[in-house]
Amino acid sequence: MASTEVDRQVRISKIAGRYLVFDIDDVAYIRRQHGICAVFTGTMPQNPTQNVFLGLPLELYAEDAKMLLDRKVAYIADDPLEHLTQLKSMDDEMRKSYLQSIKTQRRTAQLVFNEAKAQSMAKHKDKRKPKQPQPPVVVPTELPLPASSADDVAAAVDQEEGGAESLLGSSSSKPVKTDSSTPPQKPLVKEKLPAITPTTSNAMISNGTSNPDVENHTALPLYSYLNERGYFITPGLRFGGDFSVYPGDPFRYHAHYMANSYGWDEKIPMLDLVTSGRLGTAVKKSFLMGGQKPATENSEAGELRAFCIEWAGM
């Protein structure tokens, strides 16, 4: 693991009770190192009604945010309050640093555009039709003029040049004197860079330490239990459960379990067990349920037990 990732602190923005991650590097880090997929919720400005390929920001479960806090790899920022506070207290040095970061992003975008253009030109180079050879041009041979005719032509040329000089001014015919010791100055060309829309303001805001309280969910123990054992977890609504549990990255595997979390002393109706077990079998998954023994005055939270149910018939 790179040294930058060891000391990395993921910024989680809490906005309207939702936990959002806006930095793509943070998204890649928590997925690779902590097995957290979460859900992309951003849409493209050009196609706001699409709902298949969503983008930043990434919305975390409250369980995700609490787990990252417990591992001390993230902090939660009360984004609206902290954003305005930091903007009002920004000094000149921070402003210059932010503008420089924007310029760096624009140069990076220009390099990407140039590389894509070069690849496109190389790809279509062989498809272009070769130019047809042009027929040779026949130049007529000039015959020598008599002496009297040559004198007439020279006089006519001198007359035309004199007329052009009178029209353009006498200064055009005079050579311009230049100082050989002074090199000619090149006109300043302003660097043209593409315009970009920054997706984050991290370069403008320093790392904060505010950690608003995270809602305590009863599903957190089961969620942490599965995550610590290398499982990837995504929302399980489409399969009829709290979570869909994958043995690895969802890009490579199908879900093996649909999971529900229950309290230690919570009574579970038999009908829920039957319907969940049959539904899990119908979607080719096992129904997993679990709960943790609650903490008491004399002891901390105890063991967590998990069970799988499969519909086998009667």
List the helices and strands and how they pair.
Blueprint: H1 3-6, E1 10-15, E2 18-21, H2 24-34, E3 39-42, E4 55-60, H3 62-70, E5 74-78, H4 79-88, H5 92-125, H6 147-168, H7 220-228, E6 232-235, E7 243-246, E8 257-261, H8 270-282, E9 286-292, E10 304-309
Parallel strand pairs: 1-5, 8-9
Antiparallel strand pairs: 1-2, 2-4, 3-4, 6-7, 7-8, 9-10
Describe it for me?
By secondary structure, the protein is an alpha+beta fold. The chain has three domains: 1-90 and 204-216, 3-Layer(aba) Sandwich (MutS, DNA mismatch repair protein, domain I), CATH 3.40.1170; 91-185; 218-314, Trna Endonuclease, Chain: A, domain 1. It has eight helices and ten strands. The protein has a five-stranded mixed β-sheet with strand order 3-4-2-1-5. A five-stranded mixed β-sheet has the order 6-7-8-9-10. Strand 8, helix 8 (270-282) and strand 9 (286-292) form a beta-alpha-beta unit. The longest helix is centred in the middle third of the chain and has 34 residues, at 92-125. The two termini are 52 Å apart. The model is unreliable at 163-173 (pLDDT under 50).
Which structural category fits the helices and strands? alpha+beta
CATH topology description of the largest domain: MutS, DNA mismatch repair protein, domain I
User: What's the architecture of the largest domain in CATH terms?
Assistant: 3-Layer(aba) Sandwich
Number of strands: 10
Number of domains: 3
EC number: 4.6.1.16
Family: Belongs to the tRNA-intron endonuclease family.
Biased composition (Basic residues): 122-131
Biased composition (Low complexity): 147-157, 164-183
